[in-house]
Every structure is written in structure tokens, then in C-alpha cells.
Amino acid sequence: MTKLNDTHDPTRQSLVTAANQPDCDFPIQNLPFGVFDSAGRNPRGGVAIGDQIFDLSAGLEAGLFSGAALDAARAASCPVLNGLMARGVDSASALRARLSDLLRADGPERFRVEGLADRLLVPIASARIYLPVDARNFTDFVCSTFHALRITRRPPDAELPPVLQFMPVAYHGRASSVQVSGERVRRPHGQSKPADQPVQFGPSKMFDFELEVGAFIASGNELGSPIPIESAASQIFGYCLLNDWSARDVQFWESMLGPFLGKSLATTISPWVVTAEALRPFHTKVFKPRPDWPEPLPYLRSERDQREGGVDIDLEAYILTQRMRDSRLQPTRITNTNLRFAYWTFAQMVAHHTSNGCNLQPGDILGGGTISGPSDDSRACLAEYAEPLNLSNGEVRRYLEDGDEVIFKGRANREGYVSIGFGECRAHILPAHG
Amino acid sequence: MTKLNDTHDPTRQSLVTAANQPDCDFPIQNLPFGVFDSAGRNPRGGVAIGDQIFDLSAGLEAGLFSGAALDAARAASCPVLNGLMARGVDSASALRARLSDLLRADGPERFRVEGLADRLLVPIASARIYLPVDARNFTDFVCSTFHALRITRRPPDAELPPVLQFMPVAYHGRASSVQVSGERVRRPHGQSKPADQPVQFGPSKMFDFELEVGAFIASGNELGSPIPIESAASQIFGYCLLNDWSARDVQFWESMLGPFLGKSLATTISPWVVTAEALRPFHTKVFKPRPDWPEPLPYLRSERDQREGGVDIDLEAYILTQRMRDSRLQPTRITNTNLRFAYWTFAQMVAHHTSNGCNLQPGDILGGGTISGPSDDSRACLAEYAEPLNLSNGEVRRYLEDGDEVIFKGRANREGYVSIGFGECRAHILPAHG
Buried-most residue among A11, A180, A293, B264 (CB within 10 A)? Predict the structure, then answer.
């Protein structure tokens, strides 16, 4: 594991006491970036710490930053984080190092920060949270053989399309309909062709989620200049949870040229950008789905990426139905999987995406595909279920129903390190327009 | 044919005499919008007239506009035309009406305009021409059965995938790599799997063009609010020529989820946005590829669209090789087709694209697909050729070679109206990086 620094120090605690609880998603080792608004001010950048948001604009006004951290804080205090991402991972690292020092329980400036707390810290519960980037482009990849097999109803040892062995297969998604956790999603209309019935147009009857991890591009590349695999990892600024909503009946009928309206209705992402730096302790070797599969072609292979390009992030999907809400029940967990089952790395996705000269832009989102694992409880979308799903309160789901809420959680754990989390990626399904 | 106005008057001539030549692409009946720069000033909006560009910023400074035309001219004088498009087609119509009056040979303000000509008019030949929009999203459709058949080597009466009868099948293209005519295109590297050979990575050996017409979206729609077919035509601001460059070897191997790196290397568009208003006299009824195909489903059907949703635009592709340039030969025409062979209308593409609630944004580009017709000379890409193509100077092409230039032209003709053209969509192919 390369290049750990003081921000990863597991003994470090925060002056924000909620950040020191063992189940907190946002300990001082995390410091994810987001965009928020409070008390009728304008959307601006902040950093989650415990149950608070550190307001970067307020930190700038208080003169807390200098040098590289000042430049990064200025870029990060904007209404979108694309400018921060464009500066690259080292710039954000300088800002995180300074924030970690400012927010330490035992830091030399503790009393200064506490004296300014009314201005610097905003409770997450009282803030409105926005999309962290102006997402110009969204690309989604296939990185789980388990998903590819189950969604086509093939047994675990079945043949897969050969191309899956050689490249992270992908399609361009729709960037304009990316929205932030909490915004509701309306069941779409669309064409479908049920077996033995004519082609029809109406509300989707097979509305599904897909549990994914998204990555945000840092500075990107010029058109015509591929990013080599050796430097591709440094083009990943950070990560989020991503729900690639899928109207399966629409998707299965339309997809002569790949997914289109079955997916473009909406994509929901979690609001906090967990930096690649914060996730560094949780990297692991790349998963190999089949022992007989070939090594990656040279443009997709680096020793370091093979050794540590995987990321160990526990991922969960929950469902909260209207009946559960009425009965004050907690959401039921329906999926428990892990990003380490992805057999392509985000560095490989970057190298492949740019291998033809295609330009990536700061804030572009790469979706790592539906992250299903080998076990039944790791099925990361409903289309992988051969049988209806029984929920804990006796309800049954084949696909999502109006009023259902789908909630994703993600958390990186490793012995000897403080666990960090993503917060929620959540959305409520509205009925189709009449 | 509905709503013709004075700007369509075929007897109207321009004080810019080059605009009155019968073969001129930019007569006073056209007035297409673009973005240009001259003499080291900033990129800004203009309107092509004959061999000149009317500088909208200069027109504003001279106080030539008022009312709705003034608002539109302000929006159109920016470095991108998205703001003009967002205002909708009526706003642009007001500006075009005023420009037509200003640029008339027999207009009451002729002497005023001629007195200001040094400031108002910039020769196209001395200007640098930019991408007219900040293209946030690019979607490409399948609208020619002739293309769909030939590219899969099927005879003209063969079965087609049933979905083609029911919807304008589409995929999301890459918006970041859209570039303007004149910018060079580099042959991409990519994975391919030639028959009886292992998977390989290297420069594409099957580099191709696709002759298309692109449409620019006007104001667009909010996420979750489909655009009904009845109002979809008014969401088309204007049109361009579009070359959807295609690395066929890459495309054919990768496309499990549709086109990706085989297409995302670059897309070239012509710089002048020919308005939907200017093309109104050239509309025609929709082409029906097969007599037994069903009527469009209700959400894609309007009587008016069926009657006049087609557009009669002659489209040509030319090739200019290095040997032709060395011998001072003219480009060879290799394709002569017409947009009227598209069997879906741009209004249907808008209605379909938004039918699931997906939001279109001002300046989004919809590609109408490779517009091949029934005859051999209307093959609109090289992949449709079963045999190599013989050029007029004895050279032979299976696919494009380094140094080739591909040039598209487009022109709308109709008895009783002044023909209007698109200018060129042109690019030179650079060799792959070593």
C-alpha cells in the first residue's frame, strides 16, 4: 500500500465529537467534499465531518488557508466541484491535510476553530445538499461477471461473451438526468414488447435499481491524447454511490444499440465525494473472475494496478416500502456486496476510455457497473432474481413499486484503519404521470 | 406547407452580391447562425450571408436592433449559441426577420448598412470559425433502413430487427469529442478481433465516415416532463451536417452495449446552424420504408408530422486524397443521398427521447443517423460497400487512409424557392500516434 500520510492516521480524532463514533461515515480520516446550502445562502463547497459540514467559504473568510490549500479551498468553495477536480488530486490532498489539522481534537488550532464554530460548522441535518458536480459526461461499464451472468439467466459457470475478458465494456449514459440523493424519481413511460403481446407504450412494469460505485474524473485529457494505464489512477478524484435506475421492460426491447431510454430517465448519486486519497488504505488486488481468463492487454495492464487497483468497499441496498413507513418499520436490506468483485479497475476504465483519444473532462462520472458478487445476497439489482423477493414484513417484490424508497450505503473497512463511509444514496419512486 | 413569411420570399435579393449567385449556400433566404472570430477579437455570434459574416456584436453596437430582435441578437452575440437556442425558435425568427430586412438589396436601410459595412461584415475567408454550441449531450439515431440493411450485408428485402419498425432506435454518443469542420481527426487506436486472429490493440484498420444531419435542440424540457409529438417540431432550433466518424473494427468487436470507442474519438459538425425556419419550404411527407410496416404508436404520431416532418435536403460526401491534392485534382464525390430517406422525423426523435422524462438541454445535438438511400450511389458510409470503392483518379479505397479529407455538402432545393446550403463539413485524417 503506497503513500499513506497523516490524514490516514487511525489514532487521529476530531474536535467534532460525532466524527469519533465507530459507526460514523465521516470520521476525520474521510473528509469528503460536497456542495450544500444553509439559511438561504448560495450553494457552496463543504467537507463532511461527523454530523457537521465544514463550510469552506467561511474558512476562507476566516483566513484559515494558505499556499496550495488556499488555492484548493477557493476552487472547492464554488457551487460545483468541477474546478477543484480539474486541479487534480495533489491540490485536494493539500486541502485535506490542512482540514485534518484544523479539525483534529489535539491540534494546535483547536481553540481557534472552536471559537469560529458557529461560522465554520453547519449541521448536515439543517443543510440542503446539491449535486456535487456539473456532470458533463456519464459512462457506465460492465465490471461484474456475476451480474452479466444472472441478468441473462445463465448459470455461474456458463460462457460469457468473449469481449468481457478483454475490455471493460461500456456505454455512454445520459449526463443531463444525473441527480442527487433525495430527489425523487418518476416511473417512466416507455415502449415494451411482452412475450406473446403486441408492442405497447405505457408506464414501465419492470422498474429496477442497480447498485454501483461512481468515480469522478480529475483533470482529464485533451482530445487525441490517451491516458496511459500507469497514470490513470491519478485521474480518479473520488467516488460516490450510484443508482443506475433501469426500466427493464423498456431496456430489453429497445437495446439494439445498447441501453437508452431504459436508463436515461434518471441516475441518482450520493452527494459526498469520498476522495481517492481517503480510500487509499482500502485498496486490494484485482479480482479475477475465471482462472483461465487472459492477462489484460498491455494498454490495460500495470503491475501496480493489478496489485492494488481493487477497492474493498462494502455495499448495501435497502428498500423501504410505503407499508414499512406506515408501520414505522426500518428499511429491509436486500443486497450486501463489495466493490472488490469488480474485475476491472477504475484506472483500467480510464485507460480504456481514452485509448482512442476520447477526452475525459473534470467531473465526468464513470459508473463501475452493477457490483454483484457470487453469493445470492450480493445480487445488486432485482433483475438478477429468478424468484420474487420476500421482504421482512411479508411484502413481495418482483420489481420496484410506486412509493418504494431505495437506499444504498457504502463503507470501507480494514483492520488497523478507521472505517469510512459514503452516506446515503436514496430516492423515492413516484408513480408514472397519468 | 405552413407559416412561410417574408424571409422565404424567393424574389428577395441581398446587398451582399455574392449571396445572389444561384449556387451560393448562404442567400438571404438562409441566414444561418455561427460563431466566428476575426482580427484577434473574441469568438462571437454571426450570420452567414453570401461570402460574408454579419457580425451581430457590431450590429448591436450600431443600434440596429430593437424589441424581440434585440433580445435575440444579444443572446446570439455570445461565444456559443446555446443561449439563443434556449430562447426558442420564435426569438430567432424575430432576429432573422430583422436581418433579412437589413440585408435586402431593396431595403429602406440599405445605405445605412452599406455605410457600416466595414464594421458589420467580415469575409468568411478571413474568419476563424468555431463550434457553434457548447454541446452538452449528443444522441445518434437509426433512421435509414437502407443503412441498417447494407451494413449488416443483408439484401434490400431482408428482414430487419422488429424494433426498427416501432421506434427511432438510438444511443447516447460522446458530447466532449464533438468538433467543428476544419479540425483534424486522428486515426484512433483500439481493440479489434479480426476473423481467425487473436484480439489485438492498435491503429484502426477500418476507419470510416458516416454522412448525417444533426439537429440542435431549442429550449428543451425539464426532467420528468416529456415533449409531446405535437410540439416536438418547435424544439428543433436548426440543423447542421454531421460526420459520425466510425472505427468499424473497434465498433464491431466492442459493441455488446452499443457503440462506444468506435465512435467517441470525434464527431465533426458543419459550423453554420441552418434554422428550422429557413428550411420550412423544403419539408415533405415522411418516407415509409416498407408498405406493411405499422403506423407509429400514438406518442410518435401526429398528422402534421406525417404530412411534413420529412426534409428534402440533398446530401453529398466527397473524398480528397493526398494523391489528388498532389495532382491538384478536385475531390471525388462518393455519395449522393437525401435526408428525405429518413423514416423517422426529428420531431419523432424529440418525442421518443423525452418520452421517459429524459431532459433535453439547449444546444443538445440529435444525429439523424447515416442517411443512406436505395441506390448504390446513396451509400452514406464505406462500410455499406461490399466491394472496394474506385476513385476517379484510379485510387481504390476499402476504408479511409491517412491524409484523406472527407467533405460533406448539403443543399435544399425546391421549385419556386431559393436553394439554401449548409457550407462544408470537412476534416483531414491524421495518422495514428506512433
Answer: B264
d(CA A164, CA A296): 11
Look at B226 and A173 and tell me if their CB atoms are within 8 Å.
no
Determine the Cα–Cα distance for residues A406 and A246; give it in Å rounded to an integer: 13
Tell me the HSE value of A274 on the side-chain side, using a 13 A CA sphere: 31
Residues of A in contact with B161 (CB under 8 A): 256
Give how far A420 is from chain B: nearest CA, Å: 33
Q: In 3-state terms, what secondary structure has residue B264?
A: helix
Q: Which residues in chain B come in under a pLDDT of 70?
A: 1-2
Instruction: Give the full edge-to-edge strand order of the sheet including B128-130.
Output: B121-123, B52-55, B44-49, B33-37, B128-130
- Nearest residue to B243 (alpha-carbon basis) of B188, B179, B171: B179
Q: Sort out which chain B residues have CB atoms less than 8 A from A258's CB and list them.
A: 171, 255, 257-259
- Reported as a single tens digit per residue, the pLDDT across B82-115 is 999 999 999 999 999 999 999 999 999 999 999 9
Minimum CA–CA partner of B220 in chain A: A176
Strand, helix or coil for residue A414 = coil
- Contact yes or no for B161/A345 (Cβ under 8 A): no
| Residue (of A171, A114, A105) closest to A140 by Cα position | A171
- Contact between chains at B201 and A361 (C-beta distance less than 8 A): no
Q: Is residue A428 annotated as part of the catalytic site, yes or no?
A: no
* A186 contacts B265? CB cut-off 8 A: no
Looking up cell 435497502 gives A318
CA dist., res. B256 & res. B383, Å (int): 19
- DSSP character string of A142-165: ---HHHHHHTTT--TTS---GGGG
ipTM exceeding 0.90, yes/no: yes
Could you identify the residue written with the cell 469520498? A274
Distance, CA of A345 to chain centre: 14
Question: Residue A359's CB: how many other CB atoms inside 10 A?
Answer: 22
**Element (H or E) spanning B174, and its range?**
none
Answer whether B365's CB lies under 8 Å from B269's CB.
yes
Q: Which residue of B has its CA nearest to A349?
A: B261
A364: pLDDT strictly greater than 90: yes
**Could you tell me whether strands B420-421 and B425-430 are parallel, antiparallel, or unpaired per DSSP bridges?**
unpaired
* pLDDT tens-digit map of A222-268: 999 999 999 999 999 999 999 999 999 999 999 999 999 999 999 99
Contact A188, A399 (CB under 8 A): no
Pairwise CA distance, residues B130 & B53, whole Å: 13
Cell of A252: 430489453
Q: Is-contact A55 A119, C-beta < 8 A?
A: yes
Sole residue written with cell 411484502? A395
Contact A258 B261 (CB under 8 A): no
